[in-house]
Design a protein that fits this description.
The protein is an alpha/beta fold and about 525 residues long. It contains 17 helices and 16 strands. The chain has four domains: about 5-280, TIM Barrel; about 295-325, no CATH class; about 325-385; about 395-510, 2-Layer Sandwich (Double Stranded RNA Binding Domain). The strands form four sheets. It has an eight-stranded parallel β-barrel with strand order 2-3-4-5-6-7-8-9, surrounded by eight helices. The structure holds 3-methyl-2-oxobutanoic acid and zinc ion.
Length: about 525
């Protein structure tokens, strides 16, 4: 685009995003997200934190080996061990491999967390960047909790790390504390007080604790930052990170006054959002900007009338521009493979032959029970059949007896370690009885934190969609399941969560930041 300054989009869904409670992904799931980010044409994919666990290391290595377009970043603390491990995973990306090293610079972090003086932190940062730069010229340094750092000290650290070889310097709002005007001034201050600042790209990384992550990122861009760190659906630690779809669409929609652009293929935004929700089981709120179910819904008559006459009366961006295809082609039991595969493609799924065959069989079986199949049903089928984690525990059959006269009883048959096991258990309700039966069969110690039920589409023949959040050894895991019978959907969600816990590929240790 002419006369616009390009903003680098650094996606950290697979690193900071994965630090959301319940958002752990296995290697295959991370790779799927990475492929979608590649399709979306983000500039940098932060693939993980290699030292955090073997699972994280493998995911970063696999992504560095497989993904061809974007740069691949891996996080490391400012220690030799971390940096060496990060490069071991990243080296497969060659020049596109980026070591992202960080150390906290605020008084509060230095005193209570690091127990280090200014000089020690400064020396540590410089040493880390020098080591990283000995592997690659593509080095990013982050001053963790920069927003609560004394400005002269922050400027001193930033100058020193640029001298040491950092080519990107990140100024994170780690705790989501700043406001746009303050953040603008901070970036301006660094531009004016760090003599070598022109030798590096200024990056921003905002958390959303006060709901200002996107506004703060935008203010920083206006002050001179040229890289924005963000996540799909804004997922991330606590209240999340700057949402990719929001910042990208702000820059695209308001080019009239902002004059910045990104290379993101915005039509891939909704497919990316859906894929992430499907994989993690974390749905976005209905009124979420850009990707929420209501983002382009016009309920009030006056709005509907206006949009019918002229879309721009109430729409500042088109649904098509973010990849929302509102022409919901409804499939039915007579739809063939071709229509089915076409529909999956337009929903953003890139399935291989075996996967699309599996999904097609499931679609046919659903179409026998349900007259019309909507896009949401297809999302659920893909989630259930294709994005399924390896099944340590497999549901074979189940039967429920319940009602106003009966004591709820669940009879559940499962395959566990190659053996068929069956049990009948009483409960306070059909779901309670089912979960107790599964727990008994699997001998799981995981505690149930949360259970939710919804209908995927309208109508009494709608598929039920359940999510189950379990916690074991302090780590939360979310499971999802869909089925026309809501109790079967609940069982599938519970077993899906147990399979995720059991899956060896899941990172065995939460990232230490
Ligand atoms: O929030 C933060 O400060 C981070 C850094 C490690 C970049 O995630
Ligand atoms: Zn962060």
């Amino acid at each position: 685009m002419a006369n616009t300054e390009r903003i680098i989009v650094f996606d950290t869904t697979l690193r900071d995003g994965e630090q959301s409670p319940g958002a752990s992904m296995n290697i295959e799931e991370k790779l799927r997200i990475a492929h979608q980010l590649e399709k979306m044409n983000v500039d940098v994919i932060e693939a993980g934190f290699p030292i955090a666990s073997d699972g994280d290391f493998e995911a970063v290595r696999k992504i560095a080996q497989t993904i061809k377009g974007p740069q691949i970043a891996g996080l490391s603390r400012s220690s030799e061990l971390d940096i060496n491990r990060a490069w071991e995973a990243l080296k497969y990306a060659g020049e596109r491999g980026r070591i992202h090293t960080f150390i906290a610079t605020s008084d509060i972090h230095m005193k209570y967390k690091l127990k280090m003086s200014d000089q020690e932190v400064l020396d540590g940062a410089v040493k880390a960047v020098q080591l990283a730069a000995s592997y690659t010229p593509n080095v990013e340094f982050s001053a963790e909790d920069a927003v609560r750092t004394r400005l002269p000290f922050l400027a001193q650290v930033i100058k020193a790390v640029i001298e040491a070889g950092a080519t990107t310097v990140n100024i994170p709002d780690t705790v989501g504390y700043t406001v746009p005007s303050e953040y603008f001034d901070m970036i301006r201050y660094l531009k004016q007080n760090v003599s070598n600042i022109d030798k590096a790209i200024i990056s921003v990384h905002c958390h959303n604790d006060l709901g200002l992550a996107v506004a703060n990122s935008l203010a920083a861009v206006q002050a001179g930052a040229r890289q924005v760190e963000c996540t799909i659906n804004g997922i991330g630690e606590r209240a999340g990170n700057c949402s990719l779809e929001e910042i990208v669409m702000v820059l695209r929609t308001r080019q009239d006054i902002l004059a910045y652009s990104t290379d993101v293929m915005t039509e891939q935004i909704v497919p990316a959002s859906k894929l992430l929700s499907t994989i993690t089981g974390i749905q976005v709120q209905q009124n979420k900007a850009v990707v929420g179910a209501n983002a382009f819904a016009h309920e009030a008559g006056i709005h509907q009338h206006g949009v019918m006459m002229e879309k721009s009366t109430y729409e500042i961006m088109t649904p098509e521009s973010v990849g929302l295809n509102q022409n919901k082609l409804v499939l039915g039991k007579h739809s063939g493979r071709h229509a089915f595969n076409d529909r999956l493609k337009s929903l953003g799924y890139d399935l291989n032959r075996e996967e699309s065959e599996k999904a097609f069989v499931r679609f046919k079986s659903l179409a026998d029970k349900k007259k019309e199949i909507f896009d949401e049903d297809l999302d659920a089928i893909v989630a259930d059949e294709v994005l399924r984690v390896p099944e340590t525990f497999k549901l074979l059959q189940m039967n429920i007896s319940c009602g106003s006269f009966a004591t709820p009883t669940a009879t559940v048959e499962m395959e566990i370690g190659g053996k068929v096991k069956k049990v009948a258990v009483l409960g306070d309700g059909p779901v309670d009885a089912t979960f107790k039966a599964i727990k008994k069969l699997t001998k799981s110690q995981a505690k149930l934190l949360n259970f939710s039920v919804g209908a995927i589409t309208g109508g009494t023949d709608a598929q039920g969609e359940c999510t189950v959040r379990l916690v074991e050894d302090g780590r939360e895991t979310l499971g999802a399941g869909a089925h026309p019978d809501i109790i079967v959907a609940s069982a599938k969600a519970y077993i899906n969560a147990l399979n995720k816990i059991a899956g060896k590929a899941i990172a065995s240790m939460k990232s230490p930041v």
